[in-house]
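Posting this for the archive.
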Amino acid sequence: MRLLALDSSGLVASVAVLENDGLLAEYSVNYKKTHSQTLLPMLDEVMRMLGIPKGGLDAIAIAKGPGSFTGLRIGAATAKGLGLALQIPIIPVETVDALAYNLYDTEGLICPMMDARRAQVYTGIYCFRDHMLQVLCPQKPEAAEEIVQELNRMGKPVTVLGDGADVCREILGRQLRVPWSVAPAHLQKQRAGAVGALAMERLCGNTEGRKQGIILHPELLTDPDSFAPEYLRKSQAEREREARMKASQEKNAGNRMTGSSSLERSGRK
């Protein structure tokens, strides 16, 4: 079972190749260039270094969102194009879940925070039980103050990570009432290796299944043609269009009311 994994949901562009329970290669870049410039060259370089033909892949795991709308679309287009060309399925993985998987087997709670702008983070709450990731609070866009309140209610030590952790560090320090720490730099951001490892765990189950590449959950395999990113909220363009439509409707309604009033006054005369 040989898996290509991609993550372009945030500032990091990351590509990895896994074989059964092993990570063969991982290439991540978090420096200025756009994913459209980096993702395919990185993929080509990894495959060349490993000496694996693209036809030697069995599936593609991808961070399906949430995250940067542009980044998610670039990743989706790359995965769909490869999947259709190579006739292999896609395994969509929730971005925040994969970010939590960076901290495999960490004690206590794990709370990834991705900067979602507009005073929000993409976040969720996780823990590990019997070496398996447990989703306590599914990924969602939320104000930092609200996720802090949820963590306080749970009352357990928590490790935070992601670019949103730096943005929200002041709020965390001021409002969090449980012991907390920030993950180290090498585990802070998105990693394709974590996307692939979590996809393999869900697809093949326990350690033995992963070592042998036995597929226990084929329902997780998605046809490339039907795969679509998961944004969790509307894009800025959609919000602006809806605001314009609403303003136009209110203006038209106001004009109709003004016209009706004029007709009523004319009738009375």
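DSSP finds nine helices and ten strands in the chain. Residues 76 and 249 are 35 Å apart (CA to CA).
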